[in-house]
Design brief:
With about 120 residues, the chain is of the alpha/beta class. Helices cover about 35% and strands about 25% of the residues. It contains 4 helices and 7 strands. The strands form 2 sheets. Strands 1, 4, 5, 6 and 7 form a 5-stranded mixed sheet that branches. Strands 2-3 form a two-stranded antiparallel sheet.
């Protein structure tokens, strides 16, 4: 399989379109405690574009998976950074807030478990 990509972000997005790749990735990066809570075998990508009247935010990739307890679900925003940037924590916080807001709009009353991941390749 060949990839033609122009940036690290495109590479991450291209790889994370493949189910086995993102399942393996999250099984590798999540702690043992998180893997006990989250059913990674049922991870699915969800829309990662969050729009408001003032700005458009696009997280690299966002995933959703049920909790093993059967009582709720998790959202896992994945942000890729190719270098250290001072504003990354603020931007990730914004993505997380928007991701939860979008989920609550679809599933009112169910607050998802949130596990953000930043992949740094710098």
């Amino acid at each position: 399989m060949a990839f033609h990509v122009q940036s690290h972000d495109q590479l991450v997005k291209a790889v994370m379109q493949h189910e086995q790749a993102y399942i393996n990735f999250f099984e590798w990066v999540l702690t043992a405690e998180a893997r006990e809570l989250i059913d990674t075998s049922q991870l699915k990508p969800v829309p990662s574009e969050f729009v408001d009247p003032h700005q458009k935010l696009i997280a690299d990739v966002v995933f959703r998976a049920p909790l093993r307890s059967g009582n709720g679900y998790a959202i896992l925003p994945l942000e890729h950074e190719s270098g250290a940037k001072r504003m990354t924590p603020w931007r990730v916080l914004q993505y997380n807030t928007r991701a939860i807001t979008a989920e609550l709009a679809q599933n009112a009353g169910i607050l998802p478990f949130l596990w953000p991941v930043v992949l740094h390749s710098g």
